[in-house]
Automatic annotation (TrEMBL):
Source organism (scientific name): Muraenolepis orangiensis (Patagonian moray cod)
Any GO molecular function: dipeptidyl-peptidase activity
GO biological process: proteolysis
Source species, domain of life: Eukaryota
Pfam families documented for this protein: Peptidase_S28
Annotated keywords: Glycoprotein, Hydrolase, Protease, Signal
Name of the protein this chain belongs to: Serine protease K12H4.7
Family membership: Belongs to the peptidase S28 family.
First and last residue of the signal peptide: 1-25
Family annotation (InterPro entries): AB_hydrolase_fold (IPR029058), Peptidase_S28 (IPR008758)
Length: 304
């Protein structure tokens, strides 16, 4: 019975590949709903309020004295005199205050008596260095500027809170994981250690190994599953080679505008969008970050 159910699920998945609303960008990443886990320590709720740090706009131009306000959060519930400082690094999205009440890092903080800080990444959430996102202003959005933000924040907060000589540990996952690793590498005098979770520090343009992991994950449910997905993908690839099929593809996928790929890159991007649905299910379903997106709506990722 389990085998037949697995085959059925994979057949449905293959059909979904040819029927998802790709043009409307219906991706799973960041759109799920999970149950909320228990916070670290006792059940006392931590009051998380927005705090603001006066940050430098351009760390690499001494003639530019402009500043802006960067949001951060604090949890001093577990802090003991002489304890370390844990700095959670925000990434490409709003900083979630739920991290100040949940997550493995708080178990470490409780054990080690650490002060916990979370710094939101520039240009995301409520941390707006510039009034708009013009091309001119987006030059200030870079990992180099973000690392300098961290260095300035760490130095200033260390002085303000008497934590200059404390051991600071940076935490981050995915892109923030890379920032955590680079922070330790670039500013070793400021960071005692870094916990870089799933950090793509060696970025690769062509990364087929990712899909190999997805394949193995799908096959773990049933070996036929990735074969069915591949069959559906191959069929779509062949259709994309024939311009006479573009109108029907537009209808099949309910695209917002008519499919008119002008290059192989356009077709590749379309296919990547569809493949992303399978990649996201593998990467984010029940990913041990239950509190990150929502509360009380089941334990699995659901599309929006």
């Amino acid at each position: 019975m389990a085998f037949r159910i697995g085959v059925f699920i994979c057949r449905v998945a293959a059909v979904v590949l040819l029927a998802v609303l790709a043009g409307e960008g219906r991706r799973l990443k960041g759109s799920g709903r999970w149950d909320r886990p228990q916070a670290a320590g006792d059940n006392q709720t931590v009051l998380v309020v927005d705090q603001w740090f006066v940050q430098t706009l351009d760390h690499f131009n001494g003639a530019d004295s402009r500043v802006w306000k960067q949001r951060y959060f604090v949890n001093d519930k577990f802090y003991r005199d002489g304890g370390p400082v844990f700095l959670m690094i925000g990434g490409e999205g709003p900083a979630n205050p739920a991290w100040m009440e949940n997550g493995t890092w708080l178990l470490y903080a409780q054990k080690m008596g650490a002060l916990c800080l979370l710094l939101e990444h520039r240009f995301y959430g409520q941390s707006h260095p510039t009034p708009d996102l013009s091309t001119e202003n987006l030059r200030f959005l870079s990992s180099r500027q973000a690392l300098a933000d961290l260095a300035h924040f760490r130095t200033a907060m260390g002085e303000a809170r008497g934590l200059t000589n404390s051991q600071w540990v940076a935490f981050g996952g995915s892109y923030p994981g890379s920032l955590a690793a680079w922070f330790r590498l670039k500013y070793p005098h400021l960071v005692h250690a870094s916990v870089a979770t799933s950090a793509p520090v060696n970025a690769a343009v062509n990364f087929p190994e990712y899909l190999e992991v997805v394949w193995r994950s799908l096959a773990s449910e049933n070996p036929e599953c990735p074969l069915l997905v591949k069959k559906a993908s191959d069929t779509l690839i062949q259709r994309l080679k024939d311009p006479t099929t573009f109108d029907t593809i537009t209808i099949d996928f309910n695209l917002c505008s008519a499919l008119r790929p002008r290059s192989q890159m356009d077709s590749a991007y379309f296919l990547e969008t569809l493949a992303g649905s399978f990649m996201d299910v593998v990467q984010y379903n029940q990913d041990n970050r239950e509190f990150e997106v929502g509360i009380g709506a089941g334990s699995q990722v659901v599309p929006y």
